[in-house]
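Anyone up for a design puzzle?
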């Protein structure tokens, strides 16, 4: 099974923190039990890239983290898809209105 979850980065929140908390919630594990995010992406570079004053509205970054595919969009949307890579999957979509 896979599920597609969309959330937005709060203005005071770092993108890396939003990714960790979202994946932890979807995986139903405490955030401190997840592997380090830097095993998948440099969190400082990720935060700097999406907090810069760039006008690049087409910017997005995708990577895999803890059996989830993560895409961060410039406008602050994060899409996290939990993936079972061993089976055919059907995705269901949910939206988080934080």
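Challenge accepted. My sequence:
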């Amino acid at each position: 099974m896979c599920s597609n979850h969309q959330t937005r980065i709060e203005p005071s929140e770092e993108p890396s923190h939003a990714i960790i908390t979202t994946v932890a919630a979807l995986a139903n594990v405490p955030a401190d039990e997840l592997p380090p995010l830097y095993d998948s992406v440099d969190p400082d570079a990720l935060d700097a890239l999406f907090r810069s004053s760039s006008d690049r509205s087409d910017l997005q970054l995708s990577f895999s983290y803890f059996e989830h595919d993560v895409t961060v969009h410039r406008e602050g949307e994060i899409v996290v898809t939990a993936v079972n890579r061993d089976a055919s999957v059907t995705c269901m979509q949910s939206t988080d209105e934080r």
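A detail worth pointing out: Residues 11 and 68 are 24 Å apart (CA to CA).
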